[in-house]
Write a structure and sequence with these properties.
This protein is of the alpha/beta class. The protein has one domain: Vaccinia Virus protein VP39 (Rossmann fold, 3-Layer(aba) Sandwich). Helices cover 29% and strands 24% of the residues. A seven-stranded mixed sheet has the order 3-2-1-4-5-7-6. Helix 1 packs across helix 2 and helix 2 packs across helix 5. The longest helix is centred in the first third of the chain and has 12 residues.
Length: 232
């Protein structure tokens, strides 16, 4: 039986579900990212989120705040092919952008020759200790939603500690999708709130706003956009 796709979903979207299912069956929660980017590089799959513009929800948030990154550091979690990282660099931020997929990082560097963004391979489930408390803006956009429930809490707990004192965490995530199958797997409000909860030995972040956006755009029916602030 053919897979019925929701309006706006790429015909190649099932590639993500196939690869995710294969990785999860092997007990590997994140290995499908590299497989997807590698297949895309070989021309046998498409990355559904590979679009030229930055996330419109990030762009609208930045415009509303007249965001100026000069003299400030930003970290982009799960940067993929670099669209959001390059956008933040264009606002003046010194940007570090990481992805667990070495192919994604290599492709991002190739696509943006001469970029000021530092693209690196790293794992959100085990981020470098040196990054802790190091960034004035941390962007988590659409990564945790691609993780299964058994590792999601660990990933969420690793994001907040990356924010510098006085810094901001912006979370963009699926609140509902056009398909019952994942990825993405929508985040609950409790999971969104958990980004600001802090970790043992670490301070909690203050919730600035949590928006439930009915028009999620792209493949999402609804989206969360949440802003948190670190004391300092």
């Amino acid at each position: 039986m053919p897979i019925k796709l929701s309006p706006g979903v790429s015909e190649r979207e099932p590639d993500t579900r196939r690869l995710a299912a294969e990785s999860l069956a092997e007990g590997d929660a994140t290995g499908w990212f590299e497989k997807l980017y590698a297949e895309a590089a070989a021309g046998t799959a498409e990355v559904p989120w590979d679009v030229p513009a930055p996330s419109r929800h990030l762009a609208a948030w930045a415009q509303h705040r007249d965001l100026d990154g000069h003299g400030r550091r930003a970290l982009v979690v799960g940067c993929g092919l670099g669209r959001d990282a390059e956008f933040l660099a264009g606002l003046g931020f010194a940007v570090t952008a990481f992805d667990i997929s070495a192919t994604a990082v290599r492709t991002a560097r190739q696509r943006h020759p001469g970029s000021a963004v530092s693209y690196v391979v790293a794992d959100l489930l085990d981020p470098p200790a040196a990054w802790r408390g190091g960034y004035d803006l941390v962007l988590e956009s659409n990564n945790v939603q691609a993780l299964p429930a058994d590792v999601r809490a660990r990933a969420i707990a690793n994001v907040g500690p990356l924010v510098a004192p006085g810094g901001t965490l912006l979370v963009l995530a699926a609140a509902a999708t056009g398909s019952p199958d994942g990825p993405p797997w929508p985040l609950s409000r409790a999971e969104i709130d958990a980004f600001g909860r802090g970790t043992p030995g670490g301070a909690a972040l203050q919730t600035v706003s949590v928006e439930h956006i009915a028009d999620g755009g792209e493949t999402l029916v609804a989206r969360w956009r949440a802003e948190f602030r670190a004391a300092g």
